[in-house]
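Table S2 (continued). Query chain:
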Amino acid sequence: MRLMSNEILVDSYFKALNLKLDEEFLELLLAEIKRRKLNLEYYRGEVQVS
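Corresponding output:
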């Protein structure tokens, strides 16, 4: 996960939420987002979720 850019990480998290992927996977992504101290609200408007 450390090789992922912040944008890819957050985009992956939002896509995983939309696809209702496994809760453990979501928690793994969210833990990394928190470790990096990223603000999801900031990225919500910038990341294209498709």
